[in-house]
Write a structure and sequence with these properties.
mainly beta; four-stranded antiparallel β-sheet; 17 strands; 0% helix
């Protein structure tokens, strides 16, 4: 993998880490499911040991700004200085690395209706139901909407920066999404840049359309 690190071109041999298994990697904290063992960073490393606020090791990312999953909670803006990273709070299990965005976009809404198929007709998304499994953070929004607003599917995602592990959500989540009749065509976007799992089992779109 060729990367630009601290202004210089570097080549690394990187190995894909298993990100998360919903049936074996979920950790219960106060009877709440969390993703302490989830690995959702690029070019990263894992620290596991006594609680620490300074983590040595990511010298290969010197000068870069990292994201981290710290005991199931999240931290951003972690700059590697002198081969070390200072955490905002102590952690026993820390996954540190470069952030990335996971992104999905549905096809144009073209299913059947009472008066024929909708392909080529103007469609406006009025709501979305997303069936999630052990998900820490996922944003849902209308694709190419005039005023792009996203809906966070996990009400516990706000815990990400408090030092508390984020509780994972499983089940069907209704999302208040407004689409664009002129350019959206009923398509929606699902995305996340958080170092947390986002497992989507099903998406159902509510829409209105022109005759």
């Amino acid at each position: 993998m060729r990367r630009t690190i601290n202004g210089a071109s570097r080549r690394y041999i990187e190995v894909l880490e298993r990100p998360f298994q919903y049936d074996s990697d979920v950790t219960l904290v106060d009877d709440r499911p969390t993703a302490i063992n989830g690995f959702f960073v690029d070019c990263g490393l894992t620290y596991s040991g006594p609680p620490a606020t300074v983590i040595s090791g990511p010298g290969h990312l010197e000068g870069e700004t990292l994201i981290g999953l710290l005991d199931g909670s999240m931290a951003t803006g972690l700059v590697v200085t002198g081969g070390s990273v200072t955490l905002p709070y102590s952690a026993s299990v820390a996954h540190l690395g470069l952030p990335y965005e996971s992104y999905a976009r549905t096809h144009r809404y073209s299913g059947p209706s009472r008066d024929g198929y909708l392909f080529g007709r103007r469609v406006n998304t009025t709501g979305v139901y997303v069936d999630l499994l052990s998900t820490g953070s996922l944003e849902v929004g209308a694709y190419d909407a005039t005023d792009m607003r996203t809906y966070e599917t996990n009400p516990h995602a706000s815990d990400a920066f408090t030092g508390n592990p984020v509780e994972l959500v499983t089940g069907i989540v209704p999302c208040e999404v407004e689409g664009s009749r002129l350019s959206g065509d009923g398509r929606i976007v699902l995305r996340t840049s958080a170092p947390l799992p986002a497992i989507i089992r099903m998406v159902e779109i509510k829409a209105e359309y022109t005759p």
